[in-house]
From TrEMBL:
InterPro entries: ETF_a/b_N (IPR014730), ETF_b (IPR012255), ETF_beta_N (IPR033948), Rossmann-like_a/b/a_fold (IPR014729). It comes from the Bacteria. Residues 23-219 form the Electron transfer flavoprotein alpha/beta-subunit N-terminal domain. This is Electron transfer flavoprotein small subunit. GO terms for molecular function: electron transfer activity. SUPFAM superfamilies: Adenine nucleotide alpha hydrolases-like. It holds the Pfam family ETF.
Length: 271
């Protein structure tokens, strides 16, 4: 019986989100809040592993009270229970402070039921850093396996996991001890449709919510804005790339024009 915890986040839908011209940050009120797409695949994989090996899937998030909706979405996908840490003390957290707070919550969950595997999405669409998962693993002193696109085997009795990690030119097969942490690619699975019983359960579900005071051995200097050494000073929409330049004239004239352009940009071809 495995105990798998999926760490998730509620994020603004960046397909429709706008940039606040005064603050140069994402205007979260301009877009609906959704379950981070990469995290949805993390939950889906956790549920599939539960069906394959047996066990329990928990989900954990940090956020304001409305983030309960993201946990309910995970219950629809097949998760068994949810935990949320919510407190003004967590506000303004960067990836360092976020990984610290989530690690403390995971330690508390593990006291209730030992954790065999933690699964995170590769990254969140509102930050794109991919730092929280490895940060959690570092704080818990467990192996981080990033870019996982296939889980080959989980063997709790012998204490190991075998996965495929995505590389630029293929993949590598990695064996790790348990417990460990995965960050997963979207291609690891396809999201299943939620069955009606799960939807009914999710509509009525209310997660366990902890404040900073509920977590044990917490250094408040490492929480929220106080524990965040990085600051996003500006976000902007990149300009649209210019269209290609059409060369006109005879074949000889086009060759001369092309050669002239290449010579002007020769520094781009120098190693």
């Amino acid at each position: 019986m495995l105990h798998i915890v999926a760490c998730i986040k509620q994020v603004p839908d960046t397909k429709v989100a706008k940039i606040n011209p005064k603050t140069n940050t994402i205007d979260r009120a301009s877009a609906p809040a959704i379950l981070n797409p990469y995290d949805a695949h993390a939950v889906e994989e956790a549920v599939r592993l539960k069906k394959r090996y047996g066990g329990v899937v928990s989900v954990l998030t940090m956020g304001p009270p409305p983030a309960v909706k993201a946990i309910r979405k995970c219950i629809e996908l097949g998760a068994d229970e949810g935990y949320m840490i919510s407190d003004r003390a967590f506000a303004g957290a960067d990836t360092l402070a976020t990984s610290y707070a989530l690690a403390k919550a995971l330690e508390q969950i593990a006291k209730q039921r030992p954790i065999d595997l933690i699964i995170c999405g590769k990254m969140t669409i509102d930050g794109d850093t991919g730092q929280v998962g490895p940060g959690i693993a570092r704080r818990l002193d467990i192996p981080p396996l990033t870019g996982v696109n296939k889980v080959v085997e989980i063997n709790k009795e012998k204490g190991y996991a075998i996965v495929h990690r995505k590389l630029e030119d293929g993949y590598e097969v990695v064996k790790s001890t348990l417990p460990c942490l995965f960050t997963v690619e979207k291609e690891i699975n396809d999201i299943s449709f939620a069955p009606l019983p799960n939807m009914i359960k999710a509509a009525r579900y209310y997660p366990t919510i902890w404040t900073a005071n509920d977590l044990e051995n917490v250094d408040r200097k490492q929480l929220g804005l106080k524990g965040s050494p990085t600051i996003v000073s500006k976000i902007w929409t990149p300009p649209k790339p210019k269209g290609g330049e059409m060369l006109e004239g005879t074949t000889e004239e086009k060759v001369e024009q092309l050669l002239s352009i290449v010579l002007e940009k020769k520094e781009l071809f120098q190693s």
